[in-house]
Write a structure and sequence with these properties.
By secondary structure, the protein is α+β, with helices and mostly antiparallel strands. 32% of the residues lie in helices and 20% in strands. The protein is globular, with a radius of gyration of 16 Å. Bound molecules: coenzyme A.
Amino acid sequence: MTTTATATLSIRRFEANDTDAVVALWQQAFPEYRDVTKPQRNPHLSIANKLATQPELFFVAVLGERVVGTVMGGYDGHRGWLYSLAVDESLRRHGIGSRLVAHVENALAALGCPKLNLQVLSAKSDVRAFYEALGYRADAVVSLGKRLGELADSPPV
Ligand SMILES: CC(C)(COP(=O)(O)OP(=O)(O)OC[C@H]1O[C@@H](n2cnc3c(N)ncnc32)[C@H](O)[C@@H]1OP(=O)(O)O)[C@@H](O)C(=O)NCCC(=O)NCCS
């Protein structure tokens, strides 16, 4: 993609009629969304939950009419979190992921959020390299999690 093409990229809030494009993008970018043994990975439920909680922190990157990237943020009054960062496979390494991260960082900073956390699956060393290029560093913590509700018996990740 040329610089001229990236110049037309815009980032805006997710809208309900982006749903099909976002689900298709996530199924391409996150293999776990195609894994039938992981019912907890349900993109429609993820979208519905986000629309019910801080929908103003769910963003899409759009090139012309086409949704080419996503990112979700959250702020709980103490820490900010970043989720669901994805860029269309055919458009990677052109700065779109960096722009999405900067966008959510700015939105969280505007809310007074002092620190942004995120988790990367340990197997994804390329994604870790991406975040390190943007100034993120591993914290000396172990990430623990526990599922709640109907899917409490699903695998942890
Ligand atoms: C991670 C992801 C969002 C990056 O998006 P992107 O638009 O390609 O990223 P950028 O072009 O802004 O990359 C910025 C810099 O990060 C680093 N980087 C990006 N992808 C990298 C990779 N695969 N390997 C090593 N470094 C990488 C480079 O330093 C890059 O700068 P450069 O291209 O000038 O060398 C994209 O690869 C993706 O959608 N991956 C699949 C979904 C996923 O795993 N998301 C993360 C969930 S935590």
